[in-house]
Amino acid sequence: xxxxxxxxxxxxxxxxxxxxxxxxxxxxxxxxxxxxxxxxxxxxxxxxxxxxxxxxxxxxxxxxxxxxxxxxxxxxxxxxxxxxxxxxxxxxxxxxxxxxxxxxxxxxxxxxxxxxxxxxxxxxxxxxxxxxxxxx
Length: 136
Description:
Elements: E1 3-8, E2 13-19, E3 26-33, H1 37-47, E4 50-57, H2 69-82, E5 88-92, H3 96-106, H4 111-114, H5 117-135
Parallel strand pairs: 1-4, 4-5
Antiparallel strand pairs: 1-2, 2-3
């Protein structure tokens, strides 16, 4: 089995999370500048077997697409072009940033540490992935 790689897309930063090889546990990988994502993914995918790429799907409360979807669509097209052998799925990411922030509070991080937006993105990707794993 290969890993599942989750992406929390942002215009400035992208949070990444992966599963173990048995696809049972999700854990944060890193946060990458959006401009560097394809170089990072190319390197990562040559080193690790990735079976699926899971991209967060931001939605409004009424289930319609979020405004940020206009930025994600071109990213998805390029992702599919660069890695045609790896399927791409979407997964609802509503409230993941709030859940990530609450996770930081619950784990005892100081106020200054909680301002680390890169960490929030990585935790958000982990929450997206864990949510996906709980339904498959």
